[in-house]
Write a structure and sequence with these properties.
about 240 residues; globular; about 20% strand; three-stranded antiparallel sheet; Rossmann fold; about 30% helix; seven-stranded parallel sheet; alpha/beta
Length: about 240
């Protein structure tokens, strides 16, 4: 199910998306519902800034939705997460974390396996738990760290549509400035309970239209996965008509 919330500005979209995220987290805390919260990088990362720490607790595990394979704290997404008020509040309230910073001599593939194992172990421990994510859409139609591969649909399917793999490690040279990626897959996104999608800016108009178009194909527009997800709320300042 997709809810499209049309906003008059990027600021309004960010505010309403943040309020929705805070409301969901508050309800989950009230019910002490086991929760996995995965945060997208890029502009969607800003949605964490207004989260009330009282909505967090030991019922929650926090991580990132996709990772950049880099030891540089200015590039690695989890390294950026630990600088936020959300992380500080999470530590104080007893949250658990899926830490995707590179460990000593850890290869890109080893990080992917560790990340994917952590996700599946959480699901095994909490089969009825809630998976809540924030999600963005890039001008090229990518979402999470899943970039388009129109030139190689077989590779795309192998990397991102294998039902047994919730994470993938790959090289996006020529597609993105951060070439070495470790990301959750489209197969994982289908497991998500609810997603808050933040997509703003005229440069993303065509990408959002394609993401909502039933005739779009994933290797060209990975963000069309939102059509196959359980519950997606899109907050946008883009005028589609």
């Amino acid at each position: 199910m997709i809810d499209l919330i049309s906003c008059t500005s990027k600021q309004e979209a960010s505010f309403l998306a943040s309020m929705e995220l805070s409301s969901l987290l508050g309800e989950l805390k009230k019910n002490q519902q086991p929760t996995l919260l995965l945060l997208s990088g890029g502009s969607a990362f800003s949605l964490t800034e207004t989260i009330d720490g009282s909505a967090l607790g030991n019922h929650m595990t926090i991580g990132v939705l996709d990772e950049r394979y880099s030891a540089d704290p200015a590039i690695n997404n989890f390294s950026q997460l630990i600088t936020t008020k959300l992380y500080t509040a999470g530590v104080a309230t007893g949250c658990s974390f899926i830490d995707t910073r590179i460990q000593h001599n850890e290869s890109q593939q080893e990080l992917s396996v560790r990340f994917g194992t952590a996700l599946k172990e959480w699901r095994k421990a909490y089969p009825q738990g809630t998976i809540l994510i924030t999600q963005g859409i890039g001008p090229d139609g990518h979402t999470s760290g899943v970039l388009p591969f129109p030139e190689n649909p077989v590779l795309f399917k192998t990397l991102f549509e294998n039902s047994d793999s919730w994470t993938a490690a790959y090289d996006a040279t020529g597609k993105n400035q951060y070439a070495l990626r470790v990301t959750t897959t489209l197969s994982f996104l289908k497991e998500v309970t609810a997603s808050i999608v933040f997509v703003c800016g005229t440069d993303k108009t065509e990408a959002l239209k394609k993401a909502l178009n039933p005739e779009s194909v994933p290797e060209i527009t990975p963000a069309r996965i939102i059509q196959d997800m359980k519950h997606v709320s899109i907050f946008t300042d883009i005028k589609l008509q």
